[in-house]
Amino acid sequence: MAVRPKPLIVGLSGGTASGKTTVSKAIISQLESASGVCELISLDMFYRPLSAAQQEQAKADAYNFDHPNAIDFDLLKKTLQSIVDGEPVDIPLYDFGEHNRVGVEKRIERADVIVLEGIFALYDEGIRDLMDLKVFVDSDSDTRLARRVRRDMAQRDRTLASVLDQYEKYVKPAFDVYIAPTKRYANIILPQGTYNEVGIELIALHIRMKLEAMLKESGEK
């Protein structure tokens, strides 16, 4: 009887509004038809629930969501390890209005490919060790800021002044200190983000070839 290989785990990092989610979905869309079950996990779902005092800070735009301490890396690692071990897992649903976990976003029974995307996807060593491929989406800083402004004003009911203040106070320093340095851990640096269609196709091709080789070796194909 064939033993199913462990899923391939792809980590995809980059600065805020660099196009990580769009790139991840583009990769998955090129994999699903030929490569089995692919699941996208957003690091945003693993923010820590905030205390009452921290929620007041968040409402005043005084809580730093761009610091690694804001992420529950222990829960994330436990979740990924369970997936590697072939166990079903529940991905938490994080509500940014309540700054708390409010249920389950989705249940993953099994997967052939997991794409983990988020600004700190490559930050934690223990989580990096679970990855088969590490990608850093490299986008121009002005483009990222413009996207952030449009997104937060349209989707999170933020004012222009509050978005720019938060960017200057927390987002840019965090990128320089915590996120940009993780580029050195990447196997692939994807310049131009979502505009780099050839790069996205090559990443998807690499994953598909690696997965098909694993499935063949295990006797599934």
Automatic annotation (TrEMBL):
UniProt keyword annotation of ATP-binding present: yes
Q: Which SUPFAM superfamilies match?
A: P-loop containing nucleoside triphosphate hydrolases (SSF52540)
Q: What is this enzyme's catalytic activity, as reactions?
A: uridine + ATP = UMP + ADP + H(+); cytidine + ATP = CMP + ADP + H(+)
Where do the TM regions start and end?
none
EC number(s) from the headed UniProt entry: 2.7.1.48
Q: Does the keyword Lipid biosynthesis apply?
A: no
Q: Which GO terms describe its molecular function?
A: ATP binding; cytidine kinase activity; uridine kinase activity
Q: Name one GO biological process term.
A: UMP salvage
Q: Which UniProt keywords apply?
A: ATP-binding, Kinase, Nucleotide-binding, Transferase
Which Pfam families does UniProt cross-reference here? PRK
Family that this chain belongs to = Belongs to the uridine kinase family.
Name of protein: Uridine kinase
Please report the organism this UniProt entry assigns to the protein. Thecamonas trahens ATCC 50062
